[in-house]
Specification:
alpha+beta, Rossmann fold, Nucleotidyltransferase, domain 5, 12-stranded mixed β-sheet, 6-stranded antiparallel β-sheet, 33 strands
Length: about 725
């Protein structure tokens, strides 16, 4: 059965183009593009600017160079995308961007929201195409992707006229090319003038007619509530289903094929009139690989390739060594929700008889004995109320010369909209962490789930609770090699009250290492601002190597393999030099390393016709399907057709692994299989993860510590104690 990518080979002719070559200067390049937009094509290439024209005439004097289209695919692909933009512009369309080119359909039938609301509305959900070029096994391809995009058709005066509160909301300004750029957030409205705090922190005044509300999810949801009141949740659920169905494999492929057929008939015309044709997508079925299922290790070193089954049959890995049996658990909840919360906690601990996977509860599934539970109610649902209840709980346990093994804290979905200083969620974590007590939060809204859904939710929640208390549910079995292996994950999170001057980016670092044939998540974790990231990376790496070399009894001359996973755009020279500086201090070992970039946002999709008849996930590949894009790139599906939960779920996205050229270890098949296994190693859920734990755990560390650092009195040194040795961030 054929498997295709949404990538179409470009037929490159053997002719050449002339170009004018001048020295590169960024200001000069910007000026030339601004003055001669649409007339000439300007491309930076190293220390030069290449200028292409229709007739061999150029706006400046320079050296003439002949470029063979077949010998310089980079320039050819650049000219192909320029040709696409010229074509769409000639049709009075407004393409935006270049890497990739974005084209939003403005046809009324391509507005998904119109079919739901059946009325004129300032928001739209349009069909969006993304078009780019990519090299696959040293050949140029045209990649066409299709998804949806929210848009706002009316300016801010419309919303003011409809009594919609714009205070604190982000707004955008339309550029000449149609792209809407973030302007800032509204702080004051005077008649038709808006006071807006801009990204540099300065406040400016703008005409309401020149400014548009940002088409964000929050603005969209709030305006639906404003116009449709109690119908809001039902409408938003309809929108979710419509978008998911639109992104299904069969619909996505049909849309992509329609645009592909257009290019097949028209070709792509370069600035000098050269026509570039595209071909049909190739059948890559014979070139695809299928990764083996990961194997997990449980109590008494028993093994299974299904975590749920292994845990039920053999018990957790630390069943015989876990030191918090008969745990003391405190529950913090709102006074008027106490009865329902008590019922919920009992189900968590004792299980649900009707649940397929959670009939024994946290106590039975993880062999914990009988929990000692005490409930502390909050008088009010604000920080003050939660603080009082938590302090009462901590004081009571302290008076008994003990410590809570776990805190269950009930919060509300609405807390997500609060600033961190006013949010009981973060204050609850900080107060319990200060006393080395792990925390598991749950929303009151979770209690309204159907028994079927609640069983799955509690099953995942119990797994996280066990790990937070210091237990190890399972280990991930690795095939022993001649090398000692250490994998470092680098994640990040944007935290802060605003996206401008007040917000900042936090980097998270976590480590996983291979011991006696099993991967163990290390307790070394950090979160720092980007400026301190390289220093933190060398510190964490040095500390972890020291700790593991003693634990694993490394010998002089042993081979040590360091593998770095990151979801950043690219590894920079500072990161690589930071690693090399650590390596230089371990001269007794043979050290090799790999820098692996993991990308979700790449636009490539695999369509597998063997699943065309399935009820859900039509055309979706199976989990573990791979396709090698080059010597250093691999497309891997960490989530596949069987992992989709319902018919309306969209097409699963694969990730692309890219090995940095400075790496000394470059076995891409080995690295792909390892990454695939790590996507099953999360103790946050039994379901496979769309990203490996090296990335997802690091992101969670960054997000949690980033927000906690904004609370007065918080200090990361709190995590040095026992709490920091558990998976507290799950």
């Amino acid at each position: 059965m054929p498997i295709n990518l949404n990538a179409f080979p470009l037929q490159i002719p053997g002719n050449s183009l002339s170009a004018c070559v001048i020295p590169y200067e960024q200001d000069r390049l910007n000026t030339l593009r601004a003055e001669h937009k649409g007339t000439y094509v300007f491309r930076r290439q190293g220390d030069s600017i290449l200028i292409f024209s229709q007739d061999g005439q150029y706006p400046v004097i320079g050296k003439t160079q002949t470029i063979s289209l077949k010998d310089d695919f980079g320039t050819t692909c650049f000219l192909v995308k320029d040709g696409l933009i010229r074509h769409f512009t000639s049709l009075k369309r407004q393409p935006s961007g270049f890497n990739p080119i974005e084209l939003v359909s403005i046809k009324s039938e391509d507005n998904l929201l119109a079919s739901i609301l059946r009325e004129e509305y300032p928001f739209q959900i349009y069909v969006r195409y993304k078009i780019d070029t990519r090299f696959i096994n040293e050949r140029p391809y045209l990649v066409i992707d299709c998804s949806t995009r929210r848009a706002v058709g009316e300016n801010c005066l419309y919303f003011i006229g409809n009594n919609f509160d714009l205070m604190g909301r982000y707004v955008v300004a339309e550029q000449e090319d149609g792209y809407r750029k973030l302007l800032g957030y509204v702080t004051k409205i005077e008649d038709e003038m808006l006071h807006i705090v801009q990204p540099d922190g300065k406040t400016g005044m703008f005409q309401g007619r020149d400014v548009y509300l940002e088409a964000s999810r929050k603005n969209f949801d709030d305006y639906i509530l404003h116009t449709h009141g109690s119908q809001k949740d039902a409408i938003i659920e309809e929108v979710r289903k419509a978008i998911s169905s639109f992104n299904s494999g069969d619909n996505k492929k049909a849309r992509i094929d329609k645009l592909k057929k257009y290019f097949l008939s028209k070709g792509i015309i370069l600035i000098d009139g050269t026509r570039i044709d595209i071909e049909e997508a190739e059948n890559i079925q014979g070139a695809c690989g299928q990764l083996d299922k990961p194997v997990f290790v449980f109590n008494d070193n028993r093994e299974a390739d299904w975590a749920e089954k292994g845990l039920s049959q053999y018990g957790p890995y630390t069943k015989r060594t876990f030191d918090r049996n008969d745990p003391s658990i405190c529950v913090i909840c709102a006074e008027h929700d106490k009865g329902r919360v008590e019922q919920f906690v009992r189900k968590l601990l004792k299980g649900m008889s009707e649940s397929k996977y959670f009939s024994n509860g946290l106590e039975g599934k993880f062999s914990l004995g009988t929990s000692r539970v005490e409930v502390f109610a909050t008088g009010t649902e604000d920080v003050s109320g939660y603080k009082n209840a938590i302090e009462t709980a901590i004081r009571k346990k302290s008076d008994d010369s003990g410590r809570w093994d776990l805190a269950l804290v009930q919060v509300r979905q609405s807390f997500k909209t609060l600033d961190v200083g006013d949010n009981p969620y973060y204050w609850g974590k900080s107060l319990f962490f200060l006393h080395q007590v792990p925390v598991q939060d749950f929303t009151i809204e979770l209690l309204t789930q159907s028994p079927y859904s609640l069983g799955y939710s509690l099953n995942n929640m119990a797994l996280a609770c066990y790990a937070k208390m210091g237990g190890v549910p399972w280990l991930l079995k690795s095939s022993p090699t001649l090398s000692h292996e250490l994998v470092v994950g680098i994640g990040s999170a944007n935290v802060g009250p605003k996206r401008e001057a007040g917000g900042h980016r936090i980097m998270g670092i976590t480590t996983v290492f291979s011991g006696d044939g099993s991967y163990i998540v290390s307790n070394t974790s950090k979160a720092v601002v980007p400026e301190a990231y390289c220093d933190a990376l060398t510190s964490v790496l040095g500390e972890t190597i020291q700790k593991i070399q003693k634990r694993m009894n490394w010998q002089k001359g042993d081979t040590i393999r360091l593998i770095f996973h990151a979801s950043v755009k690219k590894f920079n020279k500072e990161e690589i030099e930071a690693v090399r500086s650590v390596i230089r201090s371990y001269r007794d070992y043979q050290i090799e390393y790999a820098f692996l970039k993991i990308s979700e946002d790449h636009g490539l999709h695999m369509f597998d016709s063997s699943t065309a008849g399935e009820q859900k996930g039509r055309l979706a590949p199976q989990r573990g399907k791979t396709f090698k894009l080059s010597k250093h790139e691999m497309l891997v599906y960490l989530i596949g057709q069987r992992e989709l939960r319902q018919e309306t779920d969209g097409h699963p996205r694969g990730v692309i692994l890219n090995i940095h050229k400075d790496s000394t270890f470059k076995d891409i098949k080995y690295l792909s299989a390892q990454l695939y296994s790590f996507a099953s190693h999360s103790w946050r859920s039994y379901f496979p993860n769309p990203m490996p734990v090296t990335i997802s755990y690091s992101d969670l560390i960054a997000r949690n510590l980033g927000w906690l650092n904004q609370l007065p009195g918080w200090n990361d040194s709190i995590m040095i104690g026992k709490i920091g040795q558990s998976q507290w961030f799950l």
